[in-house]
Each structure stands twice: as structure tokens, then as C-alpha cells.
Write a structure and sequence with these properties.
The chain is an alpha+beta fold. It is 26% helix and 37% strand. Strands 1-2-4-5-6-3 form a 6-stranded antiparallel β-sheet.
Length: 153
């Protein structure tokens, strides 16, 4: 197991508070020894004007899974995981149902991590998109110091 603690689906539900994941209907569905899965509905919250899954919604799915997975590998008392870069290749259009994101690590270093999310259509299992998220692992105090510097400038 690559996780810092033995996280359960129930413990991850606290991340579904008042944030984008809740707004778009994201749900965690599986935690494995080295992967994290979640679903996203394809509906009026996640489609673009032409009725297909919005590319940004695929990125939301990938970034949510990758950021939480990165956080799960570190000591949350001393460090934070923050996104640096996301890349998403959209392969197939989806107009209804749900998509599943299956997120696995490509690299879990001390200061950077790279997570890949394969996104498939729930009903057919066909690949919809593949995304790669690079995450920085920073000391807990770093984010506060950066906010103070921006506020003072």
C-alpha cells in the first residue's frame, strides 16, 4: 500500500464539502492499495453547449482524484499537495451516464508526484480521456508564507 494511512471511502467523503467536486456530482468509489477511483455524471453540470462531456469536467475529475491521491501519500500534518500542471487528451465523446476515473501514480517523489487518470464510460468501459497531473509536495507553512507575500505586495 502506498498510502500514508489506511484511508477508507468513508474517510474521503469529507472532501465532498462545499467545493467543485460536490457541485459537479463527483463521488469517490474505490480505494485500492495503489489507486483511487471516482465517478462524474454526464449531465447539465458537466456538459458543454453541444451536449457532450466538457473537457474541463474531465480535468476536474482528474485533478480531484490526483490531488487527493497525492495527499493520501504524505503526512498531512507536515505537508500539502498542490497541483502544478494538468494535461488531458480527449479521445471519445460521451453524452449521458457516468464516467469513471481510475487514478494511478507514475511517480511519487519527495517533492513532486505525477498521477495518471484513465477516464472511461461507465456503461461501455470505452476510454473517454487520459489525463496526467503533476503535483508539488510542499511544507505546510509554505502556502501561508506565499499568501502573506501576495497580500503584502
Amino acid at each position: 500500500m502506498i498510502w500514508f494511512e489506511d484511508y477508507s471511502l468513508e474517510s474521503l467523503q469529507t472532501f465532498r464539502g462545499a467545493n467543485m467536486g460536490k457541485t459537479v456530482g463527483f463521488e469517490f468509489t474505490k480505494v485500492g492499495p495503489d489507486f483511487l477511483e471516482g465517478t462524474l455524471p454526464v449531465d447539465e453540470r458537466t456538459t458543454q453547449p453541444f451536449g457532450i462531456l466538457h473537457g474541463g469536467a474531465s480535468c476536474v475529475l482528474s485533478e480531484t482524484l490526483g490531488s487527493v491521491a497525492a495527499w493520501m501519500t504524505i503526512n498531512p500534518e507536515t505537508h500539502r499537495a498542490v497541483g502544478l500542471e494538468i494535461n488531458c487528451n480527449h479521445i471519445r465523446a460521451v453524452t449521458e451516464g457516468k464516467v469513471i476515473g481510475h487514478c494511478t501514480p507514475l511517480h511519487t517523489g519527495r517533492r513532486t508526484q505525477v498521477w495518471q487518470t484513465d477516464i472511461t464510460e461507465e456503461s461501455t468501459g470505452k476510454r473517454v480521456a487520459v489525463s496526467r497531473l503533476t503535483v508539488a509536495i510542499i511544507d505546510h507553512g509554505t502556502l501561508s508564507t506565499q499568501k502573506e507575500a501576495v497580500h503584502l505586495s
